[in-house]
Amino acid sequence: MLRHLLLLLACLPLLAGCGVDADQELLCRKLIPAFEDESFTGVSSRMLADDPRAIRLDYQSAGESHWITCRFAGSSTEAGRTQLAAVATDRTGWLSGIRYAMLEQWIRIKPPRNDAAPAASFVRGVETLWTPFLFLLQQIINAATVACVYGLLALGYTLVYAIIGQINLAMGELTMLGAMMTAMAAAGLGMAGLATWPPALLGVLVLAMGFTAVQGWAMDRLVFRRLRGVRSHTPLIIAVGLSVAYQEGMRLLHGARDWWPTPALADRHDLVGDGAFTVTALSSQLAILGLTAGLYALLWGVIQKTAYGRAHRACTDDLAAAELVGVDVNRTIAVTFAIGGGLAAAAGSVIAFYYGGVSFFTGSLIGFKALAAAVVGGIGSVPGAMLGGALLGLVETFWSAYFVIAYKDIVAFGLLTLFLIYRPQGLLGQPRGRGD
Predict the structure, then answer these.
(1) Which residues contact 217 (CB under 8 A, 6 or more apart)?
(2) Number of structural domains, the chain?
(3) How confident is the model at residue 435 (pLDDT cuts 50, 70, 90)?
């Protein structure tokens, strides 16, 4: 008896891998409304015998039997088990590249459960001559949001570099702080029933920007001011150390889990369609564009019309000469760090509310991509930062839509490499003439 019990216990791990993964089944079930105008019932699931990474769901809709098959990047015991790779149905077979991309788009802006009919047009309609052009227009709309994130953070990089000639690699971590603060504040708003109230969302944005502005000021006051005039790589190494310190501090304080705030301003607006594909935009996308345009216009006005702006431009031209004619260099640089920190937090708030999934590591890759955008546009140039963000957003979004999405980061940094080789000053930048 004991021998049989031990044998059963030894087989349990093997038996555990024979059933359908619950997470995979749930993800696949959420795709059914994209193909059905009516409600569905009687869902049963099973693994495909010839493909351990695929599961099939059989269901009833409008009195008819249908099925959907979802293939994932990994089986239930492998990495990538919740990463969707391909989808097939009894009506369409395996979705083609463009239709699968349409489905991915629908997943991100999925309508409420009782409004599944518009979703069906993403994958069930007959393609027309206009479908590829509408799909291209949708990607431009999607790219605008990505460009706003990169552009806002690139502004922070470019302002600091323009005045001190050094890159603050910890700027990405200020974006992470802004995103984490936004996520935590959004959780509080949710408990208070104010998760979608625009004035409350604006208050969260101002709070996050103010906090990271103070962090940016403190970076200069406590660290970079002491390194001013150092011509070695010490400031760069210190910036890397600050980045790691912020990451680990946030991990120790709040853990390594992802935060998923409630999406704000998630109303969907259909713009144009041809029956096979409908171009849509979210209220949040329009708000992000307005926020970015407003902050850029405000920054441009400050740089061009205020005493700080004149001091910043003087320090950008020649730091030593500006100090000789009475410009308070230390204060100007400290304010620049604060403004850069606030812009980084704005990018973080956009990430938290629009994309979600923020964690202590959020600012790392985003920071390097925004730095790439600043270099491409011309680091030190305010218009160049926005131009670089727009270009990088377009390249990344188009690559994700038309090619293998796994290589989009390689393409982004490959673009940076090409600019560093053939045009190191960027599109709108000018070669620096101060010997630094």
Answers:
(1) 334, 335, 337, 338, 341
(2) 2
(3) very low
